[in-house]
Design brief:
The chain is mainly α and about 180 residues long. Helix content is about 75%, strand content about 0%. The termini are far apart. This is Ribosome-associated protein.
Length: about 180
C-alpha cells in the first residue's frame, strides 16, 4: 500500500467542511425513501398534482402496482433518490397536513429549544423520536450557532433554521409511522 506523498493541510479539511459523510448520505436516502412511502399513500389525484418532476410522479404511481415486497423496497429507494432532487419544503408541505398545526408548532418549539439549550434537548428529542440522528441534529445546530457568531445576514440564518426544521419534520413524520 503506497503512502500519501504529503500530509493533510488545513485546506483539505476546510474543503470537506459541511459535506455529508457517506453514512449520512445513506441515512438521508433511507429517510427520503420513508417519505416516499408516505407520498405513495396519497391518492392518485394528489400524487398527480404534486409539483415535482414527472419521473417522480410516475415512480409513485408505479409503486401502487407493485406487489412484490423486494420490488417495492427497491422502488422506494429509487423514489428516495428522486426526492433528493426536489425541494424538501414543498414535499413536506404536502405531508404536514397529516400532522396538523399543533404538531408543527410543537416541532418549532423543539427547534428553538435545541438552538438555545443544545445537547440536552437534542438527546431528549432523539429519545422521543426514534428516527432522529443526534449527529445530524448537532451539525445543524452548530451551523446555526456559527452563523449567529459570525453575524451572518438574516436570510442565511433563516435558511439554516429552515434546514433544521425540515430535518426535524422529516424525523417526526417517519417516527410517527
Amino acid at each position: 500500500m503506497a503512502r500519501r506523498p504529503h500530509s493533510f493541510t488545513e485546506e483539505d479539511f476546510e474543503s470537506l467542511e459541511g459535506r455529508a459523510s457517506k453514512t449520512e448520505q445513506k441515512k438521508a436516502v433511507q429517510r427520503m425513501a420513508s417519505l416516499g412511502s408516505q407520498l405513495a399513500e396519497l391518492n392518485t389525484k394528489q400524487i398527480q398534482n404534486l409539483p415535482v418532476e414527472e419521473r417522480l410522479i410516475e415512480a409513485l404511481l408505479d409503486v401502487k402496482l407493485i406487489t412484490s415486497n423486494e420490488a417495492r423496497r427497491r422502488q422506494f429507494l429509487r423514489i428516495g433518490k428522486l426526492l433528493r432532487n426536489e425541494d424538501e419544503t414543498v414535499i413536506l408541505s404536502y405531508l404536514t397536513p397529516q400532522q396538523g398545526a399543533k404538531k408543527t408548532a410543537q416541532l418549532q418549539r423543539w427547534v428553538d429549544r435545541m438552538i438555545k439549550d443544545g445537547d440536552v434537548v437534542i438527546n431528549e428529542f432523539s429519545k422521543t423520536y426514534n428516527a432522529a440522528e443526534r449527529h445530524t441534529i448537532r451539525q445543524h445546530v452548530l451551523r446555526i450557532h456559527r452563523d449567529m457568531k459570525q453575524q451572518a445576514d438574516e436570510e442565511q440564518l433563516k435558511a439554516s433554521r429552515l434546514k433544521l426544521f425540515n430535518y426535524i419534520q422529516q424525523v417526526a413524520l417517519i417516527s410517527d409511522n
